[in-house]
Design a protein that fits this description.
alpha/beta, seven-stranded mixed beta sheet, two-stranded parallel ribbon, 11 strands
């Protein structure tokens, strides 16, 4: 009744009039209840906003698309908000006894809401004097580095060694620059952005996906973005071949949670800081970082073209070893296909079944199965045109893959495949949050690299089963998978993350596994138990 007849709760006279109209017909109890309601509403209008929020155990926060820090995932047709910042902030406040309520809102509006007291907190904020006038700052909870993204053909145009040089370059070439409305990009670049003379060349959008789309549609020439966000979006959307990051840092600084001075207090900030210190000490901070950042960094590396080429080469090499064994054992064409497929994709299937992966990796893309089919058909045609002789004496030696005349090249490609599959095994362990990583990383690496070959030899009824007896093969994947897992576990403790660091670790792991396997092959090193 009040909602329809009174303006919010600012007109107690309206209620009083209604009470008077009903006083002659209502009971005494009804009159008392109505007068109590009136008195309560009058008092509520006089209570300061600070006292209403002082005892509240929920905090209002906003979010916008900022992958991998804030984004949604679809689970059972329901969108769930997740991301590094979301989980970190929730975990810290839960430890302090608070619940965080999220609502989608642009960053610019989010800042206005913090200033006017409509929201309590915001994550992912750089420090600047304007924000400090209306918000309290937490201690830093991570670091952010901003870089420039451009189209690949334009990369040479954007060569600079400092932000000052970048601004001169933007001026000299009349560059159309994309930014997120309300973001802070450091004092130098903000002066350029706020200069009225540059207004026509500054294109403001609500999120980084829009910046990528504008860049690809030639609506802007460059945009500034957090390095991890850029790598994540380029990987997730398949833009890596069309855009490039200019490695020179535009701006880098610590990131904080900010608290509205209208609705929160310095005491709440101190609670947050103490809770943040605690989750760092008990390991929850590092666990969240591993769960959200490492899959992105590893996935972005594995999504690059060079890694895809190595992966395909390894798959073909494994398939070739199966084709050669099929020829040696006089298998049918289908038998050759089975022996080629098992080492190439069998280990991955076993791995995905073991960890209960929703969709096995081999089913997500037909490229690997097609590569195996083509390898088998090409091998069949070659054998039909020119029978391929196998050195029987060397073929009987217990090594893996089967030693045939002039097979050093095959062994090299097989070792390359083993190296790639070692990294993939660790990536899958990270993506599926298999803990502890030091255990499951090397185990899944060995299973991915050698599991299929072992099953193949079981099907061949090979009593010696070279993958399990004598040869030093799966051990290579175990060793290097373990070393990569150690690095990733250590890296999660760092506050500074760079996709290049993970790329170097992946390349180092693959190189080490490849060289180890080739040394083992040429020196004929056997397993210690052999």
């Amino acid at each position: 009744y009040m909602k329809n007849h009174c303006v919010e709760n600012t007109a107690p006279a309206c209620v009083s009039s209604e009470v008077m109209n009903r006083s002659t017909t209502g009971t005494g109890i009804a009159r008392v209840m109505l007068w109590c309601l009136t008195a309560f509403m009058m008092l509520s209008t006089a209570v300061p906003a600070e006292s209403l929020t002082a005892g509240r155990k929920t905090l209002r926060c906003g979010w916008y698309l900022w992958d991998p820090y804030q984004y949604t995932v679809l689970m059972h047709d329901i969108k769930h908000l997740t991301g590094l910042d979301v989980q970190l902030v929730k975990s810290v406040f839960e430890h302090a006894g608070y619940e965080v309520l999220y609502e989608e809102v642009s960053w610019k509006q989010h800042q206005l809401d913090i200033k006017e007291g409509r929201r309590d907190i915001a994550a992912g904020a750089f420090y600047n004097e304007d924000r400090a006038s209306y918000a309290y700052y937490s201690t830093p909870y991570r670091t952010e580095t901003d870089v420039l993204y451009v189209r690949k053909p334009d990369a040479k145009r954007f060569s600079f060694s400092s932000t000052t040089e970048l601004i001169s370059l933007l001026d000299g070439h009349s560059v159309r620059l994309g930014i997120i409305d309300g973001f802070y990009y450091g004092p130098e670049l903000m002066n350029y952005i706020h200069d009225p003379a540059n207004a026509s060349r500054i294109i403001r959008v609500g999120n980084d996906v829009a910046n990528f789309e504008n860049l690809l549609d030639d609506k802007i020439d460059a945009f500034v973005i957090d390095r991890l966000v850029g790598a994540t979006l380029a990987w997730r959307h398949g833009w890596q071949r069309r855009v490039v990051e200019i490695p020179q840092v535009v701006f880098s600084e610590s990131i904080h949670v900010i608290f509205s001075k209208e609705t929160t207090s310095p005491e709440l900030v101190e609670q947050f800081n103490a809770s943040l210190d605690q989750i760092r000490k008990d390991g929850r901070y590092n666990k969240i970082v591993r769960e959200y950042l490492l899959p992105v960094l590893l996935g972005a590396t594995a999504g690059q073209r060079w890694f895809f080429v190595v992966d395909i080469i390894g798959t073909i090499a494994f398939a070739v070893s199966g084709v050669l064994l099929a020829k040696k054992g006089h298998y049918s064409l289908f038998g050759a296909l089975v022996l080629a497929s098992l080492p190439a994709v069998g280990g991955g299937i076993m791995r995905d079944v073991l960890i209960n992966r929703e969709t096995p990796a081999v089913l997500t893309s037909p490229i690997y199965v097609l590569a195996i089919f083509i390898t088998v058909l090409v091998g069949y045609i070659i054998f039909r045109i020119r029978p391929y002789g196998v050195d029987a004496k060397r073929a009987l030696e217990p090594s893996f893959p089967v030693r045939i005349s002039s097979n050093t090249a095959i062994t090299f490609f097989d070792a390359l495949g083993l190296a790639a599959f070692t990294v993939i095994g660790v990536i899958v362990a990270v993506e599926n949050r298999c803990q502890p990583l030091l255990l499951w990383g090397p185990l899944l690496a060995a299973l991915t690299g050698a599991g299929g070959g072992i099953i193949r030899d079981v099907i061949r009824a090979d009593a010696d089963n070279p993958g399990l007896k004598g040869t030093f093969y799966a051990e290579v994947a175990l060793i290097w998978g373990f070393l990569l897992s150690i690095f990733l576990t250590w890296y999660a403790n760092s506050l500074v993350y760079h996709p290049a660091h993970i790329s170097f670790a992946v390349i180092g792991t693959m190189t080490g596994a490849l060289l180890t396997r080739m040394i083992v092959y040429h020196l004929r090193i056997r397993s210690p138990m052999y």
